[in-house]
Amino acid sequence: MSVEVIVVGGGPVGLLTAALLDAAGVTVEVLERRAGQSEQARAITMHPRTLEVLTLLRTEDDRRLSDVLVSLGRPVPKAHFAVLPDLLDYAQLDTPYPFVLMVPQTTTERVLAAHLRRRGIAVHHGHDVTGFTQDADGVEVTVNDGVRRAGYLVGADGAHSLVRRHAGIDFPGTPPSLVGFVADVTLTDPPDGVMHYWDHRHGQLSFLPFPDGTYGLPDGTYRVFGTEAADTQLTSDQVRARQARSLTLDELRAILRRMTGSDHGLRDVLWLSTANDTTRHAVTYRANRVFLAGDAAHVHLPAGGQGLNVGLQDAANLAWKLAAEIHAWAPPVITGGAAGYESERAPVAAGLADNTLAQAALMTTFTPAGAALRDLMSGLIAKGGDTADDLTAWLSGLGLSYPPPVPGHPLDGCRAPDLELSDGTLHRRLTVDRFLLADFTPDAVFAPLHSARVEVARALPWSGLSAALIRPDGYIARAWTAPDIEEVAAALRSWTTPASAPAPGHTPASAPPHLSP
Q: What's the domain range around 206?
């Protein structure tokens, strides 16, 4: 067996999955059909929770990948919902990253790929996976007319995932009803910064400037995206026919003039594509030794970069659990139980589907009623309060919590903020291969509970707790207000001990598959 995990797909989700598995001590390789890294900027928005996840990965000089990306992007303190005129304010969020980071997907891929190269992890471009078989001991993958074998397979190969299809996993959802466009362009007479246009007679159009110095893009490059009113309320056949005909430079210039009265000196188009609002998510995220992540598991209207961010957070949820399974310390609760990968991430995808369908309605209901609805929603955001807070929590990723497997403290399942420890902060202390027990007691009551799978760290007082068990992905597994060391020790065992000890001679590659519920 060549490696313990093969990841199919060399986009950001596949690369991050590989990087996190490697950080957890798992041998991994990436197979990518494309001959090289993409030169298309594609998703350009990274939200705070994703940057927190990327803090798990260290560079050789002890920087974090989040630090690297922030240095290459442009922090923006506000974010739009459905391109409404009133924006969500990230500036006061409790995170080291209280902003949206404008950074092209090409930059994210390059940073992740460079990290894998430094770690000696193979990313094989030009490797076309055509099928696979799995048995009790592993997965045999057919690629470029040859065969590679691994203990597990992760499909991060996009919306048209071969891994998903070959695993026989259904991908139900709603058909497309509109066609939008997206282009990266250079303008000689650009708008002044970010600009959103919406008119019920013509459609919606947005301009977002790229940070100067972006990899592969000339200074003064803008992302232009939108939807014409005439390209909504279509049948599926009409959507397919519309997308089969490529949008031209002259047509894009005409769209700009119709919507804004000017083509803004449109000179060059670096990338031009169309998108629709097809919304689907997989019925299961696991088939024995095969997993799905990112667009392979869920697709939707591109809105606010949520697909990229949710996909990268899929990778963070999956990697530590799969590593624990491979290294034979995973309890049933994380291999297929209430805290399993599918149990936690499938509801997130369902919420993402609803969220983006709602945004599509707000963005593309080009009627006077649609205009009134936009005014209403934008006014609620401007007022602040619950509506703005809920939308900010969702888009930023910071509001996500997972239902705890057993009833306990109200903080169980919530994201842990970047707590102050006696030495550093929580997010920079987390590692992919172990839990962290934050000990808030003044006399370090829980220090004796340190083990190979649980690091104990003294922490400054927070929220009246005596201790909190933090998962490798930064969520609170259990929290306590009373310093009962036996109760805490039992919880640690429940999260880090398999149901039965491995048989003599057990090796990670021969671990039996855990079936998805």
A: 176-277
